[in-house]
Amino acid sequence: MGPVPTRKQKSIKRFGFLLTLFSTVLFFPSRSEAHPFHASSMEMEWNEKTNAFEVSVQLDPNDLEQELRRFSKKKIVLEELSSDEIDSSNLVFRYLTSAFAASYNGQQLKVKPIGFEVETKSAWIYFELPVAINEVHTKLDNLKITNKLLINQHAQTNNFLLKYKQQRLSTTFHEKRTNALIRRDDSIDKLQIVKNNVDD
Questions:
Q1: CA 1 to CA 109: how far, in whole Å?
Q2: Residue 144 in contact with residue 155, Cβ under 8 Å?
Q3: Binning pLDDT at 50, 70 and 90, where does residue 28 land?
Q4: Do the Cβ atoms of 158 and 174 come closer than 8 Å?
Q5: End-to-end CA distance of the chain
Q6: In what order do the strands lie in the sheet with 112-118?
Q7: Distance, CA of 162 to CA of 149 (rounded, Å)
Q8: pTM for this predicted structure
Q9: Do 190 and 167 touch, CB atoms closer than 8 A?
């Protein structure tokens, strides 16, 4: 497992994450404004030094706790699941891998847990998606994202931001659109969603 982010690193990452999201997805609501239109936000950033996507997910803690109870069929107290020492056996990450997936050029990317913590208004999940060396290219090809996080919540919207080198792409996932295929178009030097609901 990779190093756990320090409190300072988490604060810096969150600040950059929220600032970027505000500048690229201006319609993203605050928690109080989101309900009953439930919303989450995810940032996925490529790290060329480690050949991995670094991912941060912000969720409403009440929604997540309710969903984990449904998923596990047990009474869950979210704060008791928060720990800096965490692995794939943790309930949060078992749920995550049931509702989120990513593949690169047809190769499924394995979730590498980094951390999970709960605050008053937000629950944060941190993980990485390492990419095999022989799959890494100079441009982004065939990145498929499936995001069904909290999709059982009424009117759930999952905001998504991808940062790949100097390129950025923002989109949303919801009940009627749970996955997308993303590529970098060299002709316009831009990331594009080439197909929604790839399995449909």
A1: 15
A2: no
A3: very low
A4: yes
A5: 35
A6: 112-118, 123-130, 52-59, 39-47, 157-164, 167-174
A7: 17
A8: 0.78
A9: yes
